[in-house]
Amino acid sequence: MESFADIAAHVLEHSVADTLYLIPFLFVTYLAMEWLEHRTAGKTQEAVKRAGAAGPVVGALLGVVPQCGFSAAAATLYAGRVITLGTLFAVFLSTSDEMLPIFLAEGAPLQSIAAIMGTKVVIGMVMGFVVDAGLRLARRDDQRLRIHELCERDGCHCEEGCSTCAENPELVYEHHDDCAMGCTHEAHCHDHGHEGGWKGIFKSALVHTVQVTLFVFLVTLVLNGVLEAVGEDALADILGGDSVLAVLASGLVGLVPNCAASIVIAQLYLEGVLGAGAMMAGLLVSAGVGLLVLVRANRPWQQNVAIIAGLYAMGVLWGLAVAAVGVTF
Fold first, then answer.
1. In the chain, helix, strand, coil percent, each to 5?
2. The whole model's pTM is what?
3. How far is residue 43's CA from residue 55's CA, in Å, rounded to a whole number?
4. Of 27, 123, 214, 218, which is the most exposed, with the fewest CB atoms less than 10 Å away?
């Protein structure tokens, strides 16, 4: 029988090997993603703000594009009531945080990746329209803009330097939604070293790669340790592939507002531990930092609890539906 030291060394060796080869793939992917964000971020946010009744369509389509922090931007826009609640749900459901880089780095079939992302977009659109329609029927959709409140709470002083807004405070609602979004989103962007030009793009891609590589290594280390201790078959039996328990648990993991959540779900799915339904449930609710920004920026807090609970319920219901139909990706 192997000693604990031998088992630990074996797990560490395999975890390092399973992680190192991903680094170049992750870096290239993040380099492309950062370039895309720097080129299109402003246009993307402007498009979702101007979408109006078509917000869920635009939000779902733009949410699936791998951009750092778009869910955070959507959360702030909703906090200012610039976009509808349905549009927010569409963005949250279609985005997948770190799923795409992991799938690409692991060499998952492109048709499978496209099918998963396409399914999330359709679900985001459908649920976005359902939420907005429900609010209209309940006459709860007519909410005034809260941009000025957002600016005051975050200390942006949007109105300073603008004589028109200083003389007419009500115009702040129309003229400073970008400023309000920047107040809440600024810290997230600075955490990743976002700067102008290729130097900033390279630096951001490098920071993302290092962070995600560390998360992947830790997740892989834990997973390999569990597999070594209880056996892959036993772990699969516990999670049950697409059992109700697996779907519920995956949805809870997906709610963790950190890229580690989507990494765990993607890795478990690629390892064959999670089924398609459980994977879909977890990735549908993986809005990442967007949930943190929602809690910070939106009021009242009871509404945030309801939104997060609704997001979880949607993810679980669609995950169970995928499992029941026997969909494979």
1. 75, 0, 20
2. 0.69
3. 15
4. 214
